Amino acid sequence: MLTADTRAVIKSTNTSDRGRASIKDVAALAGCGIATVSRVLNGSGPTSVATHDRVLAAAASLDFQLSDIGRSLRTQRTRTIGCVVPSIANPVFAQALQGLQRAARAAGHQLIVSGSNYTLDQELEAVTTLLGKQVDGLVLTVSDPETSQALDLVRERGLPHALMFNHAPSLAPCASVDNASAARLVADAFVDQGHRLLGFLALRFGSSDRSRQRFEGFGARLQEHGLEAPVLLEVDDEPAHLADHLPSLLDEHRYLTGIFASNDMLALAAMQAARTLSLRVPYDLSIVGFDGIAIGQMVEPTLATVQTDPEAMGTAAAETVLAALRNEQVSSSCDQTRFHFRPGGSLSRCRDDQTDSGEVAASPLPSPTHPREPSLKKD
Protein backbone atom coordinates (compact mmCIF):
# COMPACT_ATOMS: atom_id res chain seq x y z
CA MET A 1 0.00 0.00 0.00
CA LEU A 2 1.31 3.47 -0.90
CA THR A 3 2.08 5.83 1.96
CA ALA A 4 0.73 9.35 2.20
CA ASP A 5 4.25 10.72 1.65
CA THR A 6 4.61 8.76 -1.57
CA ARG A 7 1.27 10.02 -2.90
CA ALA A 8 2.35 13.58 -2.06
CA VAL A 9 5.60 13.20 -3.99
CA ILE A 10 3.74 11.86 -7.03
CA LYS A 11 1.25 14.71 -6.96
CA SER A 12 4.01 17.30 -6.83
CA THR A 13 5.76 15.92 -9.94
CA ASN A 14 4.66 16.55 -13.50
CA THR A 15 6.84 15.35 -16.39
CA SER A 16 4.37 15.93 -19.20
CA ASP A 17 6.42 18.84 -20.53
CA ARG A 18 9.82 17.14 -20.18
CA GLY A 19 9.46 14.32 -22.66
CA ARG A 20 10.19 10.70 -21.87
CA ALA A 21 11.14 9.98 -18.27
CA SER A 22 14.55 8.53 -17.43
CA ILE A 23 15.68 6.26 -14.63
CA LYS A 24 17.12 9.39 -12.98
CA ASP A 25 13.62 10.90 -12.89
CA VAL A 26 12.30 7.79 -11.20
CA ALA A 27 15.11 7.86 -8.65
CA ALA A 28 14.51 11.55 -7.90
CA LEU A 29 10.78 11.05 -7.49
CA ALA A 30 11.21 7.99 -5.30
CA GLY A 31 13.90 9.64 -3.20
CA CYS A 32 16.56 6.99 -3.73
CA GLY A 33 19.55 6.18 -5.90
CA ILE A 34 19.56 4.94 -9.50
CA ALA A 35 21.03 1.60 -8.41
CA THR A 36 18.10 1.08 -6.06
CA VAL A 37 15.61 1.78 -8.85
CA SER A 38 17.42 -0.72 -11.06
CA ARG A 39 17.32 -3.39 -8.33
CA VAL A 40 13.61 -2.92 -7.80
CA LEU A 41 12.60 -2.86 -11.46
CA ASN A 42 14.89 -5.73 -12.41
CA GLY A 43 14.11 -7.75 -9.27
CA SER A 44 17.86 -8.17 -8.86
CA GLY A 45 18.37 -7.32 -5.21
CA PRO A 46 16.75 -6.70 -1.81
CA THR A 47 15.12 -3.41 -0.81
CA SER A 48 12.81 -2.36 1.97
CA VAL A 49 9.09 -2.60 1.45
CA ALA A 50 8.69 1.17 1.67
CA THR A 51 11.43 1.82 -0.89
CA HIS A 52 10.07 -0.90 -3.17
CA ASP A 53 6.63 0.74 -3.09
CA ARG A 54 8.00 4.24 -3.72
CA VAL A 55 10.00 3.09 -6.75
CA LEU A 56 7.06 1.25 -8.31
CA ALA A 57 4.73 4.18 -7.67
CA ALA A 58 7.22 6.64 -9.16
CA ALA A 59 7.78 4.45 -12.26
CA ALA A 60 4.02 4.10 -12.77
CA SER A 61 3.47 7.83 -12.36
CA LEU A 62 6.16 8.63 -14.93
CA ASP A 63 5.09 5.83 -17.27
CA PHE A 64 8.68 4.61 -17.15
CA GLN A 65 9.85 1.31 -18.65
CA LEU A 66 13.34 -0.12 -18.59
CA SER A 67 15.02 -0.08 -21.98
CA ASP A 68 15.29 -3.52 -23.55
CA ILE A 69 18.57 -2.43 -25.08
CA GLY A 70 19.96 -1.37 -21.75
CA ARG A 71 18.80 -4.59 -20.13
CA SER A 72 20.40 -6.67 -22.88
CA LEU A 73 23.72 -4.85 -22.39
CA ARG A 74 23.68 -5.71 -18.71
CA THR A 75 22.49 -9.29 -18.97
CA GLN A 76 23.89 -10.21 -22.42
CA ARG A 77 20.38 -11.43 -23.27
CA THR A 78 17.86 -9.91 -25.68
CA ARG A 79 14.94 -12.12 -24.59
CA THR A 80 14.42 -13.09 -28.24
CA ILE A 81 14.52 -16.43 -30.05
CA GLY A 82 15.05 -16.57 -33.79
CA CYS A 83 13.37 -19.07 -36.08
CA VAL A 84 14.10 -19.97 -39.70
CA VAL A 85 11.59 -22.03 -41.68
CA PRO A 86 11.48 -22.82 -45.42
CA SER A 87 8.05 -21.23 -45.92
CA ILE A 88 5.43 -19.38 -43.94
CA ALA A 89 2.85 -20.11 -46.63
CA ASN A 90 2.75 -23.84 -45.86
CA PRO A 91 0.29 -24.38 -42.97
CA VAL A 92 2.50 -27.06 -41.42
CA PHE A 93 5.14 -24.45 -40.57
CA ALA A 94 2.52 -21.99 -39.36
CA GLN A 95 1.23 -24.61 -36.93
CA ALA A 96 4.74 -25.28 -35.67
CA LEU A 97 5.28 -21.55 -35.13
CA GLN A 98 2.16 -21.47 -32.97
CA GLY A 99 3.65 -23.97 -30.54
CA LEU A 100 7.06 -22.33 -30.68
CA GLN A 101 5.70 -18.84 -30.02
CA ARG A 102 3.48 -19.98 -27.15
CA ALA A 103 6.37 -21.67 -25.36
CA ALA A 104 8.72 -18.74 -25.97
CA ARG A 105 6.25 -16.15 -24.68
CA ALA A 106 5.50 -18.19 -21.59
CA ALA A 107 9.20 -17.95 -20.79
CA GLY A 108 9.32 -14.21 -21.45
CA HIS A 109 10.88 -14.37 -24.91
CA GLN A 110 9.72 -12.89 -28.19
CA LEU A 111 9.97 -14.75 -31.48
CA ILE A 112 11.64 -13.40 -34.65
CA VAL A 113 10.76 -15.44 -37.74
CA SER A 114 12.44 -15.53 -41.13
CA GLY A 115 11.69 -17.64 -44.22
CA SER A 116 14.37 -19.23 -46.41
CA ASN A 117 12.10 -20.02 -49.38
CA TYR A 118 13.75 -23.45 -49.69
CA THR A 119 17.01 -21.89 -50.91
CA LEU A 120 20.45 -22.32 -49.38
CA ASP A 121 21.46 -18.70 -49.92
CA GLN A 122 18.39 -17.32 -48.16
CA GLU A 123 18.77 -19.88 -45.40
CA LEU A 124 22.29 -18.66 -44.63
CA GLU A 125 21.24 -15.02 -45.02
CA ALA A 126 18.36 -15.46 -42.56
CA VAL A 127 20.59 -17.06 -39.92
CA THR A 128 23.29 -14.41 -40.38
CA THR A 129 20.71 -11.66 -39.91
CA LEU A 130 19.28 -13.23 -36.76
CA LEU A 131 22.74 -13.68 -35.30
CA GLY A 132 23.35 -10.00 -35.99
CA LYS A 133 20.24 -9.18 -33.96
CA GLN A 134 21.81 -10.98 -31.01
CA VAL A 135 19.01 -13.52 -30.55
CA ASP A 136 19.48 -15.69 -27.47
CA GLY A 137 18.78 -18.93 -29.36
CA LEU A 138 17.65 -20.33 -32.70
CA VAL A 139 15.14 -22.87 -33.96
CA LEU A 140 15.89 -23.99 -37.50
CA THR A 141 14.40 -25.99 -40.33
CA VAL A 142 17.26 -26.28 -42.80
CA SER A 143 17.49 -27.82 -46.24
CA ASP A 144 19.90 -30.52 -45.10
CA PRO A 145 21.65 -30.59 -41.69
CA GLU A 146 24.51 -32.60 -43.19
CA THR A 147 25.54 -29.79 -45.54
CA SER A 148 23.91 -26.64 -44.11
CA GLN A 149 26.35 -23.75 -43.81
CA ALA A 150 23.72 -21.95 -41.73
CA LEU A 151 23.67 -24.74 -39.15
CA ASP A 152 27.47 -24.89 -39.16
CA LEU A 153 27.58 -21.16 -38.40
CA VAL A 154 25.21 -21.51 -35.46
CA ARG A 155 27.21 -24.39 -34.05
CA GLU A 156 30.47 -22.45 -34.42
CA ARG A 157 28.96 -19.57 -32.43
CA GLY A 158 27.92 -21.97 -29.67
CA LEU A 159 24.41 -20.50 -29.67
CA PRO A 160 21.64 -22.60 -28.09
CA HIS A 161 19.67 -24.11 -30.95
CA ALA A 162 17.36 -26.90 -32.04
CA LEU A 163 16.26 -28.32 -35.36
CA MET A 164 12.56 -28.51 -36.15
CA PHE A 165 11.22 -31.05 -38.70
CA ASN A 166 14.78 -32.08 -39.59
CA HIS A 167 15.46 -35.58 -38.27
CA ALA A 168 19.19 -35.51 -37.57
CA PRO A 169 19.84 -36.60 -33.97
CA SER A 170 23.57 -37.03 -34.55
CA LEU A 171 24.02 -33.38 -35.49
CA ALA A 172 21.80 -31.31 -33.19
CA PRO A 173 18.88 -31.52 -30.77
CA CYS A 174 15.77 -31.80 -32.91
CA ALA A 175 12.00 -32.01 -32.77
CA SER A 176 10.72 -34.10 -35.65
CA VAL A 177 9.11 -37.30 -36.81
CA ASP A 178 11.04 -40.27 -38.13
CA ASN A 179 10.30 -39.53 -41.78
CA ALA A 180 11.47 -42.87 -43.13
CA SER A 181 9.36 -44.85 -40.67
CA ALA A 182 6.30 -42.70 -41.37
CA ALA A 183 6.72 -43.21 -45.11
CA ARG A 184 6.70 -46.98 -44.63
CA LEU A 185 3.11 -46.66 -43.43
CA VAL A 186 2.21 -45.07 -46.77
CA ALA A 187 3.81 -47.93 -48.68
CA ASP A 188 1.78 -50.42 -46.64
CA ALA A 189 -1.41 -48.48 -47.35
CA PHE A 190 -0.82 -48.52 -51.11
CA VAL A 191 0.05 -52.21 -51.11
CA ASP A 192 -3.03 -53.05 -49.04
CA GLN A 193 -5.11 -51.40 -51.77
CA GLY A 194 -3.46 -53.48 -54.51
CA HIS A 195 -1.22 -50.80 -56.02
CA ARG A 196 1.98 -51.92 -57.71
CA LEU A 197 3.22 -49.03 -59.87
CA LEU A 198 3.85 -46.01 -57.69
CA GLY A 199 5.52 -42.63 -57.87
CA PHE A 200 6.99 -40.24 -55.32
CA LEU A 201 6.41 -36.50 -55.85
CA ALA A 202 8.79 -34.12 -54.08
CA LEU A 203 10.63 -30.86 -54.09
CA ARG A 204 14.21 -31.42 -55.14
CA PHE A 205 16.14 -33.30 -52.48
CA GLY A 206 18.66 -30.47 -52.23
CA SER A 207 15.85 -28.31 -50.84
CA SER A 208 14.46 -30.80 -48.32
CA ASP A 209 16.11 -33.64 -46.46
CA ARG A 210 12.62 -34.52 -45.20
CA SER A 211 11.59 -35.40 -48.76
CA ARG A 212 14.67 -37.54 -49.25
CA GLN A 213 14.10 -39.47 -46.02
CA ARG A 214 10.45 -40.09 -46.90
CA PHE A 215 11.44 -41.29 -50.35
CA GLU A 216 14.00 -43.67 -48.91
CA GLY A 217 11.57 -45.12 -46.38
CA PHE A 218 8.84 -45.46 -49.00
CA GLY A 219 11.12 -47.18 -51.50
CA ALA A 220 12.67 -49.52 -48.94
CA ARG A 221 9.27 -50.70 -47.77
CA LEU A 222 8.00 -51.26 -51.32
CA GLN A 223 11.04 -53.39 -52.03
CA GLU A 224 10.33 -55.41 -48.90
CA HIS A 225 6.91 -56.09 -50.43
CA GLY A 226 8.66 -57.35 -53.56
CA LEU A 227 7.74 -54.30 -55.67
CA GLU A 228 9.76 -52.00 -57.89
CA ALA A 229 11.13 -48.80 -56.38
CA PRO A 230 8.88 -45.76 -56.86
CA VAL A 231 9.37 -43.44 -59.80
CA LEU A 232 10.91 -40.21 -58.53
CA LEU A 233 9.03 -37.12 -59.70
CA GLU A 234 11.00 -34.06 -58.57
CA VAL A 235 9.87 -30.47 -59.03
CA ASP A 236 11.61 -27.16 -58.39
CA ASP A 237 8.72 -24.93 -57.44
CA GLU A 238 6.45 -24.59 -54.46
CA PRO A 239 2.85 -25.81 -54.96
CA ALA A 240 1.51 -22.37 -55.86
CA HIS A 241 3.72 -22.33 -58.97
CA LEU A 242 3.22 -25.88 -60.19
CA ALA A 243 0.28 -25.28 -62.52
CA ASP A 244 2.46 -24.94 -65.60
CA HIS A 245 4.44 -28.17 -65.55
CA LEU A 246 2.95 -30.56 -63.00
CA PRO A 247 0.16 -31.68 -65.38
CA SER A 248 2.72 -32.58 -68.04
CA LEU A 249 4.75 -34.46 -65.45
CA LEU A 250 1.74 -36.56 -64.44
CA ASP A 251 0.72 -37.05 -68.07
CA GLU A 252 4.18 -38.43 -68.79
CA HIS A 253 3.69 -41.11 -66.13
CA ARG A 254 0.07 -42.14 -66.66
CA TYR A 255 0.94 -45.77 -66.04
CA LEU A 256 1.32 -45.00 -62.32
CA THR A 257 -1.72 -45.93 -60.24
CA GLY A 258 -0.65 -44.06 -57.11
CA ILE A 259 1.54 -41.14 -56.06
CA PHE A 260 2.95 -40.40 -52.63
CA ALA A 261 3.61 -36.64 -52.32
CA SER A 262 6.25 -35.57 -49.82
CA ASN A 263 3.88 -33.04 -48.24
CA ASP A 264 0.18 -32.24 -48.28
CA MET A 265 0.54 -29.04 -50.31
CA LEU A 266 2.19 -30.99 -53.11
CA ALA A 267 -0.49 -33.68 -52.82
CA LEU A 268 -3.26 -31.11 -53.18
CA ALA A 269 -1.48 -29.57 -56.17
CA ALA A 270 -1.21 -33.05 -57.71
CA MET A 271 -4.93 -33.59 -57.25
CA GLN A 272 -5.63 -30.33 -59.07
CA ALA A 273 -3.21 -31.25 -61.85
CA ALA A 274 -4.86 -34.66 -62.24
CA ARG A 275 -8.21 -32.97 -62.76
CA THR A 276 -6.79 -30.86 -65.60
CA LEU A 277 -5.85 -34.16 -67.30
CA SER A 278 -9.34 -35.58 -66.70
CA LEU A 279 -7.82 -38.12 -64.31
CA ARG A 280 -10.26 -39.04 -61.55
CA VAL A 281 -8.86 -39.18 -58.03
CA PRO A 282 -8.82 -41.88 -56.73
CA TYR A 283 -10.45 -43.96 -59.51
CA ASP A 284 -7.67 -43.31 -62.06
CA LEU A 285 -4.95 -42.12 -59.70
CA SER A 286 -4.64 -42.44 -55.92
CA ILE A 287 -2.72 -39.69 -54.11
CA VAL A 288 -1.37 -39.64 -50.54
CA GLY A 289 0.25 -36.69 -48.76
CA PHE A 290 2.29 -36.07 -45.63
CA ASP A 291 1.72 -33.72 -42.66
CA GLY A 292 -2.04 -33.89 -42.04
CA ILE A 293 -2.90 -30.20 -42.53
CA ALA A 294 -6.55 -29.33 -41.89
CA ILE A 295 -7.34 -28.29 -45.47
CA GLY A 296 -6.77 -31.89 -46.56
CA GLN A 297 -10.04 -32.82 -44.87
CA MET A 298 -11.92 -29.93 -46.49
CA VAL A 299 -11.40 -30.98 -50.11
CA GLU A 300 -13.25 -33.59 -52.16
CA PRO A 301 -12.08 -36.27 -52.07
CA THR A 302 -10.48 -35.91 -48.66
CA LEU A 303 -6.72 -36.35 -48.62
CA ALA A 304 -5.16 -39.56 -47.32
CA THR A 305 -2.00 -38.56 -45.47
CA VAL A 306 0.41 -39.11 -42.63
CA GLN A 307 -0.95 -37.15 -39.68
CA THR A 308 1.77 -35.39 -37.65
CA ASP A 309 1.71 -32.83 -34.84
CA PRO A 310 3.59 -29.72 -36.02
CA GLU A 311 2.53 -27.66 -33.01
CA ALA A 312 4.10 -30.23 -30.70
CA MET A 313 7.30 -30.04 -32.74
CA GLY A 314 7.41 -26.27 -32.32
CA THR A 315 6.82 -26.55 -28.59
CA ALA A 316 9.49 -29.22 -28.18
CA ALA A 317 12.05 -27.22 -30.17
CA ALA A 318 11.37 -24.10 -28.11
CA GLU A 319 11.66 -25.98 -24.82
CA THR A 320 14.99 -27.42 -25.93
CA VAL A 321 16.41 -23.95 -26.59
CA LEU A 322 14.92 -22.50 -23.40
CA ALA A 323 16.43 -25.33 -21.36
CA ALA A 324 19.85 -24.53 -22.81
CA LEU A 325 19.37 -20.86 -21.89
CA ARG A 326 18.70 -21.97 -18.31
CA ASN A 327 22.00 -23.87 -18.46
CA GLU A 328 20.21 -27.18 -18.19
CA GLN A 329 21.78 -30.16 -19.91
CA VAL A 330 20.22 -30.72 -23.32
CA SER A 331 20.21 -34.09 -25.01
CA SER A 332 21.41 -34.26 -28.61
CA SER A 333 18.72 -36.81 -29.44
CA CYS A 334 15.48 -36.04 -31.22
CA ASP A 335 12.16 -35.41 -29.53
CA GLN A 336 10.06 -37.52 -31.90
CA THR A 337 6.43 -36.52 -32.03
CA ARG A 338 3.73 -39.01 -32.85
CA PHE A 339 2.40 -39.77 -36.31
CA HIS A 340 -0.15 -42.11 -37.86
CA PHE A 341 -1.64 -42.83 -41.25
CA ARG A 342 -4.93 -40.99 -41.83
CA PRO A 343 -7.15 -42.65 -44.45
CA GLY A 344 -8.91 -40.44 -46.97
CA GLY A 345 -10.93 -40.49 -50.15
CA SER A 346 -7.87 -39.83 -52.32
CA LEU A 347 -6.67 -43.44 -51.84
CA SER A 348 -8.79 -46.36 -53.02
CA ARG A 349 -8.50 -49.90 -54.31
CA CYS A 350 -6.46 -50.27 -57.49
CA ARG A 351 -8.69 -51.28 -60.40
CA ASP A 352 -8.16 -54.73 -61.91
CA ASP A 353 -7.40 -53.21 -65.31
CA GLN A 354 -4.63 -51.01 -63.88
CA THR A 355 -1.87 -53.58 -64.26
CA ASP A 356 1.71 -53.37 -65.40
CA SER A 357 1.59 -54.01 -69.11
CA GLY A 358 5.36 -54.25 -69.23
CA GLU A 359 5.53 -51.30 -71.62
CA VAL A 360 6.91 -48.96 -68.96
CA ALA A 361 9.11 -50.13 -66.13
CA ALA A 362 9.39 -48.32 -62.83
CA SER A 363 12.69 -46.54 -62.30
CA PRO A 364 15.39 -47.90 -59.98
CA LEU A 365 15.87 -46.21 -56.62
CA PRO A 366 18.03 -43.13 -57.33
CA SER A 367 20.93 -42.23 -55.09
CA PRO A 368 19.93 -39.49 -52.63
CA THR A 369 23.11 -37.61 -53.46
CA HIS A 370 22.62 -37.95 -57.22
CA PRO A 371 18.85 -38.15 -57.84
CA ARG A 372 17.59 -38.90 -61.31
CA GLU A 373 16.56 -35.83 -63.27
CA PRO A 374 12.93 -36.11 -64.37
CA SER A 375 11.79 -34.91 -67.76
CA LEU A 376 9.38 -31.99 -67.65
CA LYS A 377 8.79 -31.78 -71.41
CA LYS A 378 5.28 -31.69 -72.76
CA ASP A 379 4.05 -34.38 -75.12
List the helices and strands and how they pair.
Elements: H1 4-11, H2 23-30, H3 34-42, H4 49-61, H5 68-75, E1 80-85, H6 91-106, E2 110-115, H7 120-132, E3 137-140, H8 149-157, E4 161-164, E5 174-176, H9 179-192, E6 198-203, H10 209-224, E7 231-235, H11 246-252, E8 258-261, H12 264-276, E9 286-291, E10 304-307, H13 310-325, E11 334-336, E12 340-342
Parallel strand pairs: 1-2, 1-3, 3-4, 4-5, 5-11, 6-7, 6-8, 8-9, 9-10
Antiparallel strand pairs: 10-12
Helix pairs in contact: 2-3, 2-4, 3-4, 6-13, 7-8, 9-10, 11-12
Question: Could you give a short description of this structure?
Answer:
By secondary structure, this protein is of the alpha/beta class. The chain folds into three domains: 63 residues, Orthogonal Bundle (434 Repressor (Amino-terminal Domain)), CATH 1.10.260; 129 residues, Rossmann fold (3-Layer(aba) Sandwich); 129 residues, Rossmann fold (3-Layer(aba) Sandwich).
Main sheet specs: 6 strands, parallel
Overall structural domain count: 3
CATH architectural type of the largest domain: 3-Layer(aba) Sandwich
In terms of per-residue confidence, which ranges show pLDDT below 50 for 5 or more consecutive residues? 1-18, 71-75, 357-379
- Gyration radius, in Å: 28 Å
Q: Please tally the helical runs, counting DSSP H or I stretches of 4 or more residues.
A: 13
Q: Helix/strand/pairing class, anyone?
A: alpha/beta
Q: Kindly report the name of the CATH homologous superfamily of the largest domain.
A: Response regulator
The best one-word shape is: elongated
Helix content: 25-40%
CATH topology of the largest domain: Rossmann fold
> What is the strand arrangement across the widest sheet?
2-1-3-4-5-11
Query: Roughly how many Å apart are the termini?
Result: 83 Å
Strand content: 5-15%
